[in-house]
Write a structure and sequence with these properties.
The protein has 251 residues and is of the alpha/beta class. Helix content is 46%, strand content 14%. The protein has one domain: NAD(P)-binding Rossmann-like Domain (Rossmann fold, 3-Layer(aba) Sandwich), CATH 3.40.50.720.
C-alpha cells in the first residue's frame, strides 16, 4: 500500500490522539500530505514533528469542532499549503455518560455540536473544495457500532449522534449521486478501541482499564488501517460502512 496516496492531501480532525493520530500516521505512510486539526496543540506539534521526521508533509491547526471558524480554517490551510483537500477523515468525536432523564443539557450539546454539526461543517467545506477543483475526493466519517444499536441505557444521546452520522452518510451518498459527483463517502464504525473514549465517557481515569481490560480490544491502528483500505479502493467502488468489533465483544 506504500505510495498509494502520493500527490493527495488529507484533512484529519481529532488528530491529536487515538484513531485520528493513528490515521494521520497511516495516511502519511501511504504518501499523503496531511492537514491535522485538534484542540490540543502540544500533541499536534509532537505528532507533526514525528511525521515530519519521517519525511511527511504536514500542516497543523488548533481546531475546536464547536467553532465553525476553526473548522473552516482547516480547509483554508489545506488550500494554502497543498492546493486543496482530496480526503477528509472526520475522526473528531466524543461520548459522555448523559442519561436523558437527568444529564445536564451541556453534555448533550457538546456531543451534538462535535459529533454531528462539526462533522457536517467539515464535510461541507471538503465538498466545496473538492468540487472547486474537480477532484474525485473521499470523505470518511469515523462513526461507531453505536450507530447500529444502543450500547447502554446511559448512552442514548451519544448513540443518537452516531445514528445521525449514519443518516448523514447515506444522505450525502444519495446527494452526490443525484448530481453525478465523483466524490465518495464512507463510514467506519468501530466497537471497543483502546483510546481515551472510555475515561472521557465515564469521567473517571480508571474506566479505561475497566472497559478495555476485560478482553483484547481493537487498537487505533486497526481502524486507521481500515480507513486506508476504504480510501484506496478503485474509483468504481464505494465502501459504505465498515463495522469492526473485537472478536470477543458480544454486542
Amino acid at each position: 500500500m506504500s505510495g498509494a496516496l502520493v500527490g493527495r492531501t488529507a484533512v484529519v480532525t481529532g488528530a491529536s490522539s487515538g484513531i485520528g493520530a493513528a490515521t494521520a500516521r497511516e495516511l502519511t505512510r501511504a504518501g499523503a500530505a496531511v492537514v491535522l486539526g485538534a484542540r490540543r496543540m502540544d500533541r499536534l506539534e509532537a505528532l507533526a514533528a514525528e511525521l515530519g521526521g519521517s519525511g511527511a508533509a504536514v500542516a497543523i491547526a488548533a481546531t475546536d469542532m464547536r467553532r465553525e471558524a476553526d473548522v473552516v480554517g482547516l480547509f483554508a490551510l489545506a488550500r494554502e499549503r497543498f492546493g486543496g483537500v482530496d480526503v477528509l477523515v472526520n475522526a473528531a468525536g466524543l461520548g459522555k455518560r448523559a442519561p436523558l432523564g437527568s444529564a445536564p443539557t451541556e453534555l448533550w450539546r457538546e456531543m451534538l455540536e462535535v459529533n454531528v454539526l462539526g462533522l457536517a461543517i467539515a464535510t461541507r467545506e471538503a465538498i466545496r473544495d473538492m468540487e472547486r477543483r474537480g477532484a474525485a475526493g473521499h470523505i470518511v466519517h469515523v462513526s461507531s457500532m453505536a450507530a447500529h444499536r444502543i450500547p447502554s441505557p446511559d448512552a442514548a444521546m451519544y448513540a443518537a449522534t452516531k445514528f445521525a452520522v449514519r443518516a448523514l452518510t447515506e444522505g450525502l451518498r444519495q446527494e452526490l449521486r443525484a448530481r453525478q459527483s465523483a466524490i465518495r463517502v464512507s463510514a467506519v464504525s468501530p466497537g471497543h478501541v483502546e483510546t481515551e473514549f472510555a475515561e472521557v465517557f465515564a469521567g473517571r481515569p480508571e474506566a479505561r482499564t475497566e472497559t478495555y481490560g476485560r478482553f483484547k480490544v481493537l487498537e487505533a491502528g486497526d481502524i486507521a488501517a481500515a480507513i486506508l483500505w476504504v480510501v484506496t479502493r478503485p474509483p468504481y467502488a464505494e465502501v459504505h460502512d465498515v463495522l469492526v468489533r473485537p472478536t470477543a465483544q458480544r454486542n
